[in-house]
## 1
Amino acid sequence: MATAKAHTNIALVKYWGKKDQDMIIPQTDSLSLTLDEFYTTTKVTFDDQLSSDQVSINSNLLGDQASQKVRNFLDLVRKMSGTTAFARVESQNHVPTAAGLASSASAFAALAGAASRAAGLNLDRRDLSRLARRGSGSATRSIYGGLVEWQRGHDDATSYAKPIMEEVDFGLEMLAIMVDTTAKKISSRFGMQQSVASSPYYKVWPEIVAHDMAAIKEAIAARNIDAIGEIAETNALRMHALTLSAEPGFTYFDSDTLKAMRAVRALRDNGIHCYFTMDAGPNVKVIYDRQDRQSIFKALATEFGADRLVVSKPGPGIKIWND
Ligand code: DP6
């Protein structure tokens, strides 16, 4: 039996497309910020008495279909460790209110940590990151805190995350605007597959990311939040252009997403430095220096309501313990 706590992460340079669907080898590198406010705690118990895996999230037992990805992941851990017993997986998602930001990143990172430890595997962080990757690509990066790079690699052994700056020593912060908290309609898995297969613009995406990765690493080294924000915002818009240009085209934006983007731009026009990024859903995350938190929060609260805003500092890497 073991428990792990992992925080979610938001990409500043996005992962959008796989080279290998099965092993989850991405087309490009990516880079993210781990967040303090959003995390998953998961306890895994391998038990000879069980006749199947049992998975619960926030105390609700999942049915066969909903737990399929988790059970496949447990099969992988059983294969690696030689364990034959089924497992009880008890997961708690800690997200403020009905945030709709609970991502597969913290979930699969925590599951990788708890399941591997409970099965008697003592993996180092690189191998944990490789294992988490098999559950969900973005989970690869949630093994580490702060600013993290996922090096795409070319196979299972070479595709893993590396910390860029685990303890963020400058004012980088993120605020999420929760414009919609219902479940997303097009999964990132399906959405990125469609983009790779049918967007005529996908062929330039790897070049864009290579450029953005180099630029954002320089900006991080210089602790330049404006440069980080500009790169992240442009990168996010270009990722979303891959969904609009797929066949059939689709988007994760809704009208409030556009409203939030406009609000961030308006703040910027008024001299407040902030930038936005969006993932496979309508919520908008704002990037800024913590010294501007008050003025940004105040302005966005008048438009969206304070209850829809969640401020998050950079968060820590995974913690695993034996109960
Ligand atoms: C837009 O990691 O959810 O958040 O690997 O298929 O599970 P799978 O996809 P997932 O995709 C995340 C996409 C993103 C960008 C990112 O986190 O880099």
Note: The mean pLDDT is 95.
## 2
Amino acid sequence: MINKINALLKEVENLKAANAEELEALRIKYLSKKGEISLLMNDFRNVAADQKREVGQHLNKLKEAAQNRINELKASFENVQTTNDDIDLTRTAYPIELGTRHPLSLVKKEICDIFGRLGFSIAEGPEIEDDWHVFSSLNFAEDHPARDMQDTFFIQHNPDVLLRTHTSSVQTRVMENQKPPIRIICPGRVYRNEAISYRAHCFFHQVEALYVDKNVSFADLKQALLFFAKEMFSADTKIRLRPSYFPFTEPSAEMDISCNICGGKGCPFCKGTGWVEILGCGMVDPNVLENCGIDSKVYSGYALGMGIERITNLKYQVKDLRMFSENDVRFLRQFESAN
Ligand code: DAH
């Protein structure tokens, strides 16, 4: 019997199968209930008692070897199969380059994250707008120059269908539909009919922030602005507010930050002043609140708006605005590490 077992052992150690079906046939031949090894196991009953130990050991060895060899073959088929699935023979041999976020997207995300930490949530509105949301609701007088054809792109000669010139339109849309407290940040693309140059483009990006609640004061605005400037630029950034005018805020201001290139000492970038302008802001004009159905005797609010390109320029010193829309990978790759 031992000879028979050894002969089978040699056989199973050299088993070969060309495919999964052949392998299954081998498994049945050797390991199934009526397979050769099982038959030997049955014969084991007849082995003389003094040989049982030795024969038993050989039998176990044989069973194990058969099982191992069959597993081995099975694994080799599985490997071949998965590798075949994984390899795309049409793929280029060069490593695939991963894209990175656009610098404007990076800065937009950073602005939204900073205001997010102050409890603002993101709101969006349409780029194709009407006069009410872009101008009238925001207290623009009928003859305000910003409505002029020179600035605004109108669609199909219809003065009531236009491309929004600022993201302040989202303020109105949110105030019309939500009750205070409102705390939103609205990033988006805006359009103006300007000649394209290194410092102006016919489309660019803005972020608008709006906070409306009971007892919102100018001090709240100033605190939010200071927090934003320090988070966005550096902890030692200073801010200053200059009185200004916007139809939708009263009082209105423009905010400068200490020049982050020379640290406020004065350099060509800040034209020797030590300050650079970054945004417009103010207390929401009561007319605007009323236009949106909010009682201006109960509620007050602040608003601010900034250009994303402007902030990106300050952070990364991009000298030519057009770089942002030219998709030149040599430019875009420079922001890989910021991703
Ligand atoms: N909408 C203004 C613009 O496009 C920016 C702005 C200024 C937004 C003051 C505001 C604000 O909310 O309070 O130039």
Note: Residues 279 and 306 are 5 Å apart (CA to CA).
## 3
Amino acid sequence: MNKNHIALIDRLAETHTLPAENYLTLIRNLSDEEDAYLANCALKTKETHYGKQIFIRGLIEISNICKNDCYYCGIRASNRNCERYRLTEEEILSCCEEGYRLGFRTFVMQGGEDRFFTDDVLCDILHHIKAAYPDCAVTLSLGERSDISYRRLKKAGADRYLLRHETANPEHYRLLHPKKMLYLNRLRCLHVLRDVGFQVGCGFMVGSPFQTEEMLAEELRFIEAFKPDMCGIGPFIPHKDTDFRDFGAGSVRMTCRLLSCIRLIHPTVLLPATTALGTLHPQGREMGILHGANVVMPNLSPASVRKKYMLYDNKRSDGDESAQAIASIRARLESIGCTVSVSRGDIAAEEQ
Ligand code: SAM
């Protein structure tokens, strides 16, 4: 193993920060053995704060109707081949009921930016969920909204909000989104979400079109500076009905390497092993966990709509991506030395 590379990994584990050029070295140059060393450091760090526990979240994809036209996304507004759906309040509540019975104590409501879901509609749903399941956390992932909206959703009981920044590079952001979507607004939203009291998640795709290794180093610097409570990263996977159909998918190995770096940067961060990782590799989820991830988010949406929330080709929602497969998910996690936590799974307090 290269002594300099190991020294950089050790320094990251100890100080939680590196200059961008050192991140670039890790991104570009690690051998298999050095990757294993990095993963082991990340796993130990995760265990210091969370032990063997893995948190589970029930993911409810409430609508695939979206006003935005992100170039990479299968549910973008201009995709005429996407069969649209929207869950009713009753359907969402019955997903929660089933999720609760299966042992989930966090529900994640994710969807496109669907104008139907006004603050009034969402607050009503939140009140019902919180009244029925006061011991559960609710995470929202519903895109960019106004300050007032975020405030109202927080007050109505939502606990966490996931809004991937997608890329920390403003020029890159412009290559991935239409002109009217603004990088600065994305950032503004993240800061407002934090100010109004949410546990906040950001994140990015690995291997998205036009991304360079230097940009990945910038991503790590961004995570250092923003210090999110949650960080969702997964490989980009092309969708046949988007302009990016001919780009290659991101790499599983690079995603795992970055998961480990993020764990070392921010030891207590809630870090999911994402569906995209599980889609690209049959053991993707386990690999993510063994590289320092500590959250899995199986799908709790009604079976009838799962195939319609197709963000990228072949997105998995069956087998162990399904919340109903919790017994098998548990067995697979136990086979790699983990246990499934039955708590809400909030971020651990940092040691002083
Ligand atoms: N509308 C909400 C938002 O903008 O945050 C949540 C839904 S959005 C579809 C959820 C995430 O899916 C995005 O943040 C993006 O990173 C990811 N995603 C979309 N298309 C993808 C693709 N082709 N490959 C991998 N991830 C993708």
Note: The mean pLDDT is 97.
## 4
Amino acid sequence: MQTAVFSAKNYDREFLGAAGKAAGHALTFFEPRLDRETCKLAEGFSAVCPFVNDVLDAEVLARLAAGGARLIALRCAGFNNVDLPAAAEHRLRVTRVPAYSPYAVAEHAMGLILTLNRRIHKAYNRVREGNFALDGLLGFDLHGRTAGVVGTGKIGQVLAQILSGFGCRVLLYDIRESDACRAFGEYVPLDQLLAESDMMSLHLPLTPDTRHLIDAAAIARMKPGVMLINTSRGGLIDTRAVIEGLKEQRIGYLGLDVYEEEADLFFEDLSSRVIRDDVFSRLLTFPNVVITGHQAFFTREALSQIAQVTMESLTAFERGEPLEYEVTAAVLRK
Ligand code: NAD
């Protein structure tokens, strides 16, 4: 199937290219992010393969449909960047990759917890500069601490298992409780999780209900000095409120792999450019903040699975078969 791949990096060419070749799909890779300017590149392609920060608003979708597109095959789990009612209006089907390696993201969240706690980001630089002093690197045992997992779907469950392996008391919160997850922790109301957790990690989709779940009011209910981790979507956190929380030392550690306004920053080398986002720049000034640029998914296993599932969706669509991982506007009403 003729497919336009947007936001294409070298690793996309490697993993999607190999899977596309094996499945007999003709993929054309475009480096730019999909938006109102670049969507004309997709003219004549029946499928479009976007990534997390590509823009799929009503106008872009209308133009893609007018250009002949019939399928949007997202190569990611989240679909908050797609106007699903507009997609339906333009008869564009939308698929995603809901379940690639949850280990990739959960292990990265754990990596952020360990880095922040043991100040590995500081120690790395110190040792390279011949500074072997330990002052300022004091951590705490994770064993026996209380860890909150907010969202106990595929990724949250793996993190709960990892944290229970570390000997943490694990508190869980989700609107749909999972029996499998109960093996690793105890479901409690969100307020209790906020009040009792020494560290907490967010594993929710970004929806109108979850946007700014962590706002000033939630931060006020958290245990002073809490460690907050977000590897899900930046919009789950009100970043300005979190900055206030860091300044007031209510938040003792912050680990982010996602950021509300990441679309203008992440996935590009901006090292010789001036960063104009003052909120992001402020975050970078705190010694107790570690930010990675949306890399939690970035393992060989996850990229292989993403490529495989995306090709399966293209093949099913081409053959007129049911789309196993279709997302429709109905999901917004659930
Ligand atoms: P999932 O669908 O398996 O789990 C999400 C959980 O959130 C579900 O159990 C659901 O019931 C719960 N939930 C939804 N709305 C809720 C609400 N209002 N209150 C409480 N719970 C609610 O998803 P997953 O595979 O575990 O992924 C979680 C998120 O991680 C994704 O939505 C995506 O945004 C993010 N993600 C990030 C990366 C990365 O590289 N940083 C990679 C993959 C996924």
Note: The pocket of nicotinamide-adenine-dinucleotide is lined by residues 77-78, 102, 105, 151-156, 174-176, 203-205, 207, 209-210, 231-233, 257-258, 294, 296-297 (CB under 6 Å).
